[in-house]
Amino acid sequence: PRYDFRGMHIDVSRNFHSKQLILDLLDQMAAYKLNKLHLHMADDEGWRLEIEGLPELTDIGSKRCHDLTEDSCLLPQLGSGPFSDVKVNGYYSKADYIEILQFANARQIQVIPSMDMPGHSRAAIKSMEARYRKLIEQGLTAEAEQYLLSDRNDKTVYSSVQYYDDNTLNVCMESTFTFIDKVIDEIAALHKTAGVPLSLYHIGADETAGAWLESPVCKAFIANNDKNVKDSSELGAYFIERTASILSAKGIEAAGWSDGMSHTRPENMPKKVQSNIWDIVAHAGHKRAHQQANLGWQTVLSQPEALYFDFPYEADPKEHGYYWGIRQSNSKHVHSFMTDNLPANAEQWTDIEGLPFEADDTLQRDESGNVVSGPLAKSAKFSGIQGQLWSETVRSDEIAEYLMFPRVLMLAERAWHKPSWEVPYQYQGAVYNQQSGMFTQDMRNQQAVEWQAIANTLGYKELIKLDKADINYRVPTVGAVIKDNKLFANLIYPGLAIEYRVNGGEWQLYKEGALVKGNVEVRAIAADGVRKGRTLRVQ
């Protein structure tokens, strides 16, 4: 394979997804030789794994309902509604998780658990606050404070990207690290029981939203300076460095998202760490990727424009998904990703607004002569590639499969195969844009030929396998036009059938140039001939 790390990430925290969905995903990952499942089980909106000795994490943190005190559940979010007995709530029991681990291991897939922290931690914070209130009422003050994650006197005003003002662990409290140590030990124990030792744990470490500034605990912590933290700007780095060291001492490698990892001081980090690069290519995302790869870290490409599968396939209001990174991303777009030359994608892609962009990969220095950014070192390389499904807009297993498949197959293609049409990386540095000409016409033609072969492979061969596995992949929408009262239509995947109807009548199999008059609608049919794609009216 091109990359040793060939991963798929799924978020079961924002909205819960069933164990069966995970097992089905693992089967397909094995079929296409993806070998890492990044399982994101804790975030602001939910904690999804049973932890021995901390029942509040799942008794409270795994469900959302209407309880203003948040003593029995978290407040409703993401359209979850006022009642707790809905499918977006739930968690994996210890037995469930052990089953997932063993199922994955039997298919040569490593499960990478992730409970996001210190930001994105509202579910944990509120669960431990509820635990605190319960134990204080029993007069058990020491027990109540043992795993507390928040300073009750913190007056810091902040807002996360998702507008939470209470979602960041207080990193100055020793109880925060007692909690982390407990959680990691319990997860490691589940791995040991499963016969699959925990060797890689994802901290998260992203999007920490300016907390701690007015925390009395943090002010005292900084004044004491026994951890060599000089001011509040260093607290985020301190947290990641300390947590990575806790993991390293247990023989576990730490991983995190690239923005949080960039705040660390490399000399304070374990020698072996992993960073998932989620910086947008059109926003100079190659710079952080190159910087962290040059540190010798294991860098896993996770770029939103091509690898976030919660983005819509098409720019259409009927298509699910967020669109902050790119307005549309279908399988052909994923296939086009030049992974070993990130800035070269400026020659073929546009930004979120559909405009050309430039990627400057030359050596850049600040006014003091310090290197700000630059090309990859010849000794550096990316260790892998990972697709992501975030679940804010994904409220069912069916929609999860719709968004992942068939894009997961293109993820596997990029993880395994280095195409001849990829622009060779320029180690001396280069500037790429839509006029720079390094992505030659011959390369573009090779890319088109390869895509046609893959599109035919999917349409004639692979999609029927997904049907037989009962995977709810996205049946594509039809491109169609009427010329001189004749209907002409096509699909991204040759081999799938197309139907049309006129004026709401019976559906008919499409034949090129069919005579039509009136209101014409078209739709595609899945490879098994049963499921239908979204109906479109031909203008």
Structure overview:
The chain has an eight-stranded parallel β-barrel, surrounded by six helices. It has a four-stranded antiparallel β-sheet with strand order 17-16-19-20, with no helix packed on it. Helix content is 30%, strand content 16%. The protein is globular and about 80 Å long. It is of the alpha/beta class and 539 residues long. Helix 10 links the parallel strand 7 and strand 8. The chain has 15 helices and 20 strands.
Keywords:
globular; alpha/beta; 8-stranded parallel barrel; 20 strands; 4-stranded antiparallel beta sheet; about 550 residues
Short description:
By secondary structure, this protein is an alpha/beta fold. 30% of the residues lie in helices and 16% in strands.
Helical content (DSSP H or I, runs of 4+): 25-40%
User: Could you say which overall geometry the principal axes of the C-alpha atoms support?
Assistant: globular
> What's the assembly state of these chains?
single chain
Write out the strand line-up for the largest beta sheet, numbering strands in chain order.
Answer: 1-2-4-5-6-7-8-12
Continuous helix count: 15
Give the N-terminus to C-terminus distance in angstroms: 45 Å
Low-confidence stretches: none
Averaged pLDDT: 96
Report the C-alpha radius of gyration, rounded: 25 Å
What is the tally of beta strands? 20
Structural class: alpha/beta
β-strand amount:
15-25%
Biggest pleated-sheet summary: 8 strands, parallel, barrel
